[in-house]
Amino acid sequence: MAEVLVLVEHADGEPKKVTAELLTLARSLGEAAAVFLGAPGTYAKAKEYLAQYGAARVYVVESEDVVGYVGAPAAEVLAKLVADASPAAVLVAATADSREIAARVAAKTDSGLIWDAVALTPDLVATQGIFGGSTIVTSKVVKGVPVVVVRPNSTAPEAAPVTPSEQTVDIAISDAAKGAKIVDRVVEAKSGRPDLTEAQVVVSGGRGLGAAEHFTLVEKLADTLGAAVGASRAATDAGWYPHQNQVGQTGKTVSPQLYIAVGISGAIQHRAGMQTSKTIVAINKDPEAPIFEFADYGLVGDLFNVVPQLIEAIEKRRAG
Amino acid sequence: MNIVVTVKQVPDTWAEKKLDAADKTVDRKSVDSVMNEMDEYGVEEALKIKEAHGGEVTVVTMGPAKAAETIRKALSMGADKAVHLTDDLLHGSDALATSAALAKVISTLSPDIVITSSEASDARGGVIGALLAERLALPQLTQARKVTVDPAAGKVTIERLADNGYALVEASLPAVVAVVEKINQPRYPSFKGIMAAKKKPLTTLSAADAGLDAGAVGLAGATSTVVASEPAPPRSSGTIVKDEGDGGTKVAEFLAAQKLI
Ligand SMILES: Cc1cc2nc3c(=O)[nH]c(=O)nc-3n(C[C@H](O)[C@H](O)[C@H](O)COP(=O)(O)OP(=O)(O)OC[C@H]3O[C@@H](n4cnc5c(N)ncnc54)[C@H](O)[C@@H]3O)c2cc1C
Ligand SMILES: Cc1cc2nc3c(=O)[nH]c(=O)nc-3n(C[C@H](O)[C@H](O)[C@H](O)COP(=O)(O)OP(=O)(O)OC[C@H]3O[C@@H](n4cnc5c(N)ncnc54)[C@H](O)[C@@H]3O)c2cc1C
């Protein structure tokens, strides 16, 4: 059975849930082979997780070179593995970093690239929702080794424990790939809540909140639901919430079971990032707000009255 | 500074977008077209770099004849000249072919910096910046929310969006920079700018003029094909309720009925 390469999505070695999803998907296509690229000493944290989700093989590169420069080194490693292992396909998660790496791998190996797949059949026909999910397309790579960028939350992860064969990949990153050097990393994130793209519930706030401090209301609702917090561009541009929480065309694309938009008008660029959510709830005081055109449940009212009451009602139900 | 900026013409942001029934490419005929909004930020950044360091801004686009409108917009914002790669052979090019064609044209312009944006609103690949860096063998400075150019030192530094903050990334010039919409506030073309744009040099190239191999571009050279397409099942229209003082409770009831709490 041919290998299917999966680029491991992780933060300092801690795998993201999408990695389990990709490994599960890979197993339906062939033999799952994880590719772990990280700083020295980080693989140990991922090892057990990858085994748990059925990575029959793990290719490991631990080096400052693969994490110290943008894009090119990771693409170089993957292109080498494609040449050496002749996999049936390469799967990466639809994150900003990985989609760029995927594109470079496709270019290097003269292969076709498909982005934002939500499903992939054993004969490698991909399903993409395009134009913000309004059209469903099936497509197929016709050249080289298919490089497929897969949306988080599109496969249910299933454990299938194995003992992976580990292979340290010996590769010297070329000087040409060291053009864009990462000289510093600055953390601005608010942490402690689920990852936006992986969360089953997302509560987002917009300009309707009126001030940064009112985001505590959104956070409180989110915490009541175990949700991630999102924001519209109006809210991130105003500095009320960090940019990495922005949902939309130029922010994150989310597809949770439940999306609650609080004080968000539903501009097309916002919609582009959330309209494939299973259930959409909107709270907005303007009955004409575009968000009501595609919400499953719309509450026309002042968020400062509705949200506290909602939190209380949920807590009451919980208490039984 | 020799600054090159890429712009793409796309269906109007608010238009309902469709695929052409016959060849499954974007239907660009039945909708109004505009410059990809994100590219306005790219053009703005190119103009800012020119204003700070001197030089010339060249706009590059690949697209049908109509895409000249988008070029004109960039010129009226203040770009100096433009190259329009246009040929029926290019119709249906995928991201790999598009990047190869753009790279070919851009390399003849010997840029000090290539500015692109992080995403076009029609296809939303978000990959052309990385692909141009790959094709041109230049540093990849993508997801940039701030760009600082130091021509004397031959250096460019960006703030690159990251999952938990940002990274400071440094490269020598020439480099490819892909900007996000946080970077600036694009200017509107002035009346004077619109008038001046009409006299600015515009070079139109066919695929052959650009030295492209006909088999490697367009639908003929595509590395993937669309098997089928259909409209997504429409969202069943939702329930809209006005708050009568019990709005929060109502929302909770809905969530409970949907087994979401
Ligand atoms: C290139 C480009 C990229 C973009 N990318 C994104 C993106 O990724 N994500 C994104 O979100 N936007 C994006 N935008 C911006 C987008 O066009 C909108 O401007 C933005 O989404 C508006 O945010 P908002 O809904 O919070 O604000 P508004 O549109 O101002 O809406 C605020 C809403 O709050 C309601 N409201 C006010 N007070 C209350 C109250 N007390 N109770 C209840 N409701 C209240 C109002 O009725 C209104 O509907 C982009 C734009 C461009 C040009
Ligand atoms: C719905 C849809 C899905 C598609 N899916 C795929 C796919 O899965 N794989 C694939 O290989 N191709 C795909 N394509 C084809 C692809 O869109 C085109 O090749 C496109 O020109 C490049 O991708 P993009 O627009 O997503 O660019 P992005 O990477 O999103 O664009 C970033 C920037 O690159 C520049 N740019 C992009 N195109 C041009 C241009 N023609 N001229 C000048 N500058 C430009 C602009 O500055 C733009 O802002 C798809 C097209 C559509 C319409």
From TrEMBL, chain A:
It comes from the Bacteria. The keyword Metal-binding does not apply. Binds 1 FAD per dimer. Residues 4-186 form the Electron transfer flavoprotein alpha/beta-subunit N-terminal domain. Keywords: Electron transport, FAD, Flavoprotein, Transport. FAD binds at residues 207, 232-233, 246-250, 263-270, 284. Pfam families: ETF (PF01012), ETF_alpha (PF00766). One of its GO terms (biological process) is fatty acid beta-oxidation using acyl-CoA dehydrogenase. The electron transfer flavoprotein serves as a specific electron acceptor for other dehydrogenases. It transfers the electrons to the main respiratory chain via ETF-ubiquinone oxidoreductase (ETF dehydrogenase). Heterodimer of an alpha and a beta subunit. This is Electron transfer flavoprotein, alpha subunit. It comes from Frankia casuarinae (strain DSM 45818 / CECT 9043 / HFP020203 / CcI3).
UniProtKB/TrEMBL annotation, chain B:
Pfam families: ETF. CDD domains: ETF_beta (cd01714). GO terms for cellular component: cytosol. The keyword RNA-binding does not apply. InterPro entries: ETF_a/b_N, ETF_b, ETF_beta_N, Rossmann-like_a/b/a_fold. Heterodimer of an alpha and a beta subunit. The electron transfer flavoprotein serves as a specific electron acceptor for other dehydrogenases. It transfers the electrons to the main respiratory chain via ETF-ubiquinone oxidoreductase (ETF dehydrogenase). This is Electron transfer flavoprotein subunit beta. It comes from Frankia casuarinae (strain DSM 45818 / CECT 9043 / HFP020203 / CcI3).
